[in-house]
Amino acid sequence: MSAFDRRLWPDGRVSAELDVVGLGENSLDHLCVVDRWPVPGEKSDLVQYVSRPGGQVATALLGCARLGLRVGYMGAVGGDPAADSVLEPLIRAGVDLEGVRRIPGAQTRSATILVRRRDGERTVLAYRDPRLRLAPSRLELREIERARALHLDASDPDASLWAARTARAAGIPVVLDADHVWPQAERLLSLIDFPVVSRRFAEEWGGTGRVADGLAKLTGSGAQLAVATCGEEGAMARSSELQLLSPAFPIQVKDTTGAGDAFHAGFIWALLKGTSSRQALRIANAVAGLACMALGAQEGLPRSEDLENFLAANGDELAASGPVQ
Predict the structure, then answer these.
(1) Is the pLDDT of residue 202 over 60?
(2) From CA 160, how far away is CA 166, in angstroms rounded?
(3) What is the tens place of the pLDDT at every residue in 19-39?
(4) CB contact at 8 A, 24 and 75
(5) Contacts (Cβ under 8 Å, ≥6 apart) of 148
(6) CA–CA separation, 14 vs 20, rounded Å?
(7) Residue 210 neighbours by CB distance under 10 Å
(8) Strands 27-34 and 71-78
C-alpha cells in the first residue's frame, strides 16, 4: 500500500454496537423483463415478471449484512402488506430495524422496473407516498451514534442532513448514495466523507459534463474520497492525493437493478475492513458485478465467501488488513 493509497478510515470505534446504520429508501420492485423498450401507443408482452424487495439504502444494508457486518436500518414503510415484503429479507439477515417507522394508511414505496433482456439495462418508474417522508424530529441520536459508519441517500434531505451532522459530531464516517442533484445539495455534501455518486450526478455537479470535474468539486467540499460509479466502465475516484480508475469485472449481466446499491455495500465493507482506496474500489466493483448476475436488486448480493471466491477467480485477493472487528 503506497503512502498516498493508504487506509480509507483509521477507525477507533470497533466496540460500537453496530458496524453500519443506514437512513433512506426501501422499495417493493416490480421487475418486468422485456425484449426491447416499448414505444408510445404500443402493446407488448413481458418476457418475465417478478416482484422483489429493493430500494437504495435497504439494498446496500442487506448487502453489508450478507458480507458479515452488524447492520441497522432507519426508514419508513407503509401500513400495507408490501411493508412486510420489503422488511422480510432484512429481518432474515439479522438487520436491526429499531429505526424503522411504520406509517398507518401510507403505501410502501414501489417501483416498476423495465429490464432489457439482452443486456440487463433497466428503466425505473418509482412512486413514493408523500406520507413516508421522514422529519428529523422523528429520529433519535442513539440510532446514529451506536454505529461505526453511517450510510445515507438524499430521499429525505432534511433527515439526511440531521443524520450527517450527528455522525460528524460523533466522529463517524458518512457514506452517501446520490444519483441526481437536488436543491441545496451542497449543505449535505459538505458533511459527507465518502460520496459515492452516479456518473450522471458527477457530470452535473462539476458543471462541465466531465466526471473528473464533479469528483474534484466533491473533494474540494471536504470529501476524503469521492467516487463515481460508471456502469460497465467501473468506477472513478479522487481524493486530495490521488485519482483512480477501477475497471468493472467482465460478467454475464442479467439485471443492472441495484448495481450501485451493491457497490455501496462492498465499499462500506472495505471501508470498515481498513483497506486502501484502490482495494475498496476493486471490492465494490466485485460486489456490484455479482449482484448484476441475478434478477432484482437483492437476489445476487454475495456473502463474504462468494466475494472471496469471485475475486480469487479473477486474480484478486481480499485485502490482508484483517477482518472487520
Answers:
(1) yes
(2) 10
(3) 999 999 999 999 999 999 999
(4) yes
(5) 11, 13, 14, 16, 18, 19, 20, 172, 173, 272
(6) 11
(7) 12
(8) unpaired
Of 223, 170, 227, 221, residue with least CA distance to 197: 227
Residue at grid coordinates 462541465:
208
How many Å separate Cα 276 from the centre of its chain? 19
270: left (phi over 0), alpha (psi -120 to 50) or beta: alpha
pLDDT band (50, 70, 90) for residue 250? very high
Distance CA 213, CA 130 (A): 34
Calculate what percentage of the chain has a pLDDT beyond 70: 93
The tens digit of pLDDT for each residue in 260-298 reads: 999 999 999 999 999 999 999 999 999 999 999 999 999
Mean pLDDT of the chain: 93
- Alpha-carbon span 58 to 64, nearest angstrom: 10
Q: Which of 243, 232, 244 is nearest to 285 (CA)?
A: 232
Contact 33, 115 (CB under 8 A): yes
Instruction: List the grid coordinates of 314.
Output: 479473477
At 281, the amino acid letter reads L
By DSSP bridging, strand 110-116 and strand 48-54 are unpaired
Please state whether the predicted TM-score (pTM) of the whole model is above 0.70: yes
From CA 287, how far away is CA 26, in angstroms rounded? 19
- What does the angle CA 249 – CA 110 – CA 57 come to, to the nearest 5 degrees? 50
Q: Which residues of 143-176 are buried (b: 16+ CB within 10 A; e: fewer)?
A: bbbbbbbbbbbbbbbebbbbbbbbbbeeebbbbb
